[in-house]
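Researcher: Here's a chain I'd like modeled. Treat it as a single chain, no partners, no ligands.
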Amino acid sequence: MSRRPHVRKRYWNEPEMGLWEKAYLPEILRGLFITGGVFLRNMAKWMTGRKGALTTYYPEETRPDYAPANRGKHVLTRRPDGSPQCIACNMCATVCPAKVIEIEAGFDPADAAHPKFPVRFEIDYSRCVFCGLCVEACPEDAIRMAKEVPDLPAADRWTMWLGREELLAWQPQSDVAKPYPPAPKAPQGDRP
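Model: Modeled as a single isolated chain. Structure tokens:
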């Protein structure tokens, strides 16, 4: 049984290289000329004390020209009493395309309006794609993305997990778009 050699399919719009492109050397020299020109311009700016390329010396500097809708670090908002506004509904974890949010729910029978709360809320920044779907899915406006950039460079992946305490450390903590009403006061009884 003989095997036929594989014949590559030819497409109708396949580009044809001319003699100039087939020679390669002129194209290589053109690329080196462009790269060298950019390098020499940036080197001259650096030697004269001006900043050359758009280099940010992170973490000492941060770029001020981030887009206005920049999605940065995730934060959890708080209720007026300081507890997390999250009701552990898992909608953010469900909609997350990278599956980086892990929530463990707890139960508080004293809070009749929202008895569920997150005991554990973690985000794995080594896999997060910063899409913002978790913010859009949250019915309580409990998770947001602040413009500040998270401290992502790390030696190992385990330091790139942000826990509940880090997510709640955002300032201002009382700036919520959907504030909770104050808790109902307990009946005082019959005091004279």
